Amino acid sequence: MRMAVILLAGALFGAGLVVSGMTDPARVISFLDFSGDWNPALGFVMGGAVSVFGAGQWILRKRDLRLFATDLPDTSSSPVSKRMAIGSAVFGIGWGLSGVCPGPALANLTELHREILVFVPLMLAGMFAAQRIFKLDR
Fold first, then answer.
1. What's the sign of the alpha-carbon dihedral 19, 24, 25, 28?
2. Which of 80, 87, 62, 82 is nearest to 72 (CA)?
3. Domain that holds residue 38
4. Three-state SS for 70?
5. 55: left (phi over 0), alpha (psi -120 to 50) or beta
6. What sign has the CA pseudo-torsion 60, 13, 88, 121?
7. How confident is the model at residue 32 (pLDDT cuts 50, 70, 90)?
8. Alpha-carbon dihedral angle through residues 46, 55, 127, 44, given to the nearest 10 degrees
9. Distance CA 123, CA 104 (A)
10. Are 45 and 22 in contact (CB under 8 A)?
């Protein structure tokens, strides 16, 4: 049951990316181009996603609900670590340069664009390397 919910959530996320047009790297890059032809669409997509996530977290915490008997993470004191800051910077730089982040990249695989077919294996190699370098459990 848990895997079915995870697959459904992933499919819903992918569908949202496609419907919102966020699988188009040009659209993402136009959001980051403040001095040129700026397109605020990505800001609205992110705002909607953060709103839905925030409301869901608020409901789960308010009602003390557990999904699949898993405790919610304690967020009372979560300092920003050096590793998290570096990872966020690398992610942001890569996203800004390519216009693609992992979710839309996977959604774009079905279109077989050359850039995506290069990006995804390199992304996976980077994830694999990070796991080995930082000895991550996931």
1. negative
2. 62
3. 2-134
4. strand
5. alpha
6. positive
7. confident
8. 0
9. 12
10. yes
Average pLDDT over residues 103-113: 84
- Tell me, what DSSP letter sits at residue 67? B
Question: Tokens for 36?
Answer: 């040129």
Amino acid identity at 3 = M
- Taking phi over 0 as left and psi of -120 to 50 as alpha, with beta for the rest, 79 belongs to beta
Between 53 and 77, where is the model more confident? 53
Number of domains in the chain: 1
Q: What is the DSSP string of 87-121?
A: HHHHHHHHHHHHS--HHHHHHHGGGT-HHHHHHHH
Q: pTM score > 0.85 for this model?
A: no
